[in-house]
Specification:
Shape: globular
Largest sheet: 2 strands, antiparallel
Strand content: 5-15%
CATH class: Mainly Beta
Distance between the termini: 33 Å
Number of domains: 1
Helix content: 25-40%
CATH topology: Ribosomal Protein L24e, Chain: T
CATH architecture: Roll
Bound molecules: zinc ion
Number of helices: 2
Amino acid sequence: MKCDFCGKEISKGTGITFVRKEGTMTHFCSRKCEQNTLKLKRKKRRVPWTQEYHKEKKIRQGGQ
Ligand SMILES: [Zn+2]
């Protein structure tokens, strides 16, 4: 299972599972990721320490 925000692998027994009203589950590896998503409402693509950001960056650099 991977963190929905930063993309890191979450080991069993750790991490936070957040269930939305609609019943969709979101998994976070840490409070930091939880806060960034739910409280700060940051886009993972804009946050330098997520895998999504690095993916985007690579695509951007590779395309030029
Ligand atoms: Zn995370």
